[in-house]
C-alpha cells in the first residue's frame, strides 16, 4: 500500500489490514457496506446452482457461499439444496444467531434487482409458511370432526 493513498489520520498498519480484509474500499476508504451493491437478477443467481458455485438470495441480498460450504454447521447439503434460489424463508425458519448473520456479511456480493424484488413480492404475497401450516392443521381438524360426526351418526 502506498503511503500517499492512505489518509494521514489512519495509521498505515490499520489501513493495510482494512484493505486486506476488504472491509474498506481501497480507493476512497469508504466502508464497503456503504458502497452501492451490484444488482443481480434471479436469472443470474440461478446460474450459480452447482456444488462448486453456490449463490443464494436471503432478504433480497445475494450471497456467494461457495467458500462457506464446508464450514456450514448444518452441512453443505443444506446450502447446495438452495443454490441459485431465494432461501429467505428457510433461513428465517432455522432461526440463525446474530453471529451467523454477522458472518454472512463476508459472503455478500450484491442485491436482488428491483424488478425481481417486485416479482418475488407478488409471487410470495400469498400464504407464509406459518399460515400454510395453520391451514393444514385446521383442515385436518375439520376433517377429523366431520368424520367423527359421520361415524357417530352411523352408529345410531
TrEMBL record:
<keyword id="KW-0256">Endoplasmic reticulum</keyword>
<dbReference type="GO" id="GO:0046872">
    <property type="term" value="F:metal ion binding"/>
</dbReference>
<dbReference type="InterPro" id="IPR050668">
    <property type="entry name" value="Cytochrome_b5"/>
</dbReference>
<keyword id="KW-0472">Membrane</keyword>
<feature type="transmembrane region" description="Helical">
    <location>
        <begin position="133"/>
        <end position="151"/>
    </location>
</feature>
<dbReference type="InterPro" id="IPR036400">
    <property type="entry name" value="Cyt_B5-like_heme/steroid_sf"/>
</dbReference>
<dbReference type="InterPro" id="IPR018506">
    <property type="entry name" value="Cyt_B5_heme-BS"/>
</dbReference>
<keyword id="KW-0249">Electron transport</keyword>
<keyword id="KW-0408">Iron</keyword>
<comment type="similarity">
    <text>Belongs to the cytochrome b5 family.</text>
</comment>
<feature type="domain" description="Cytochrome b5 heme-binding">
    <location>
        <begin position="37"/>
        <end position="113"/>
    </location>
</feature>
<keyword id="KW-0479">Metal-binding</keyword>
<keyword id="KW-1133">Transmembrane helix</keyword>
<dbReference type="Pfam" id="PF00173">
    <property type="entry name" value="Cyt-b5"/>
</dbReference>
<keyword id="KW-0812">Transmembrane</keyword>
<protein>
    <submittedName>
        <fullName>Putative cytochrome b5</fullName>
    </submittedName>
</protein>
<dbReference type="GO" id="GO:0005789">
    <property type="term" value="C:endoplasmic reticulum membrane"/>
</dbReference>
<keyword id="KW-0349">Heme</keyword>
<dbReference type="GO" id="GO:0020037">
    <property type="term" value="F:heme binding"/>
</dbReference>
<dbReference type="InterPro" id="IPR001199">
    <property type="entry name" value="Cyt_B5-like_heme/steroid-bd"/>
</dbReference>
<keyword id="KW-0813">Transport</keyword>
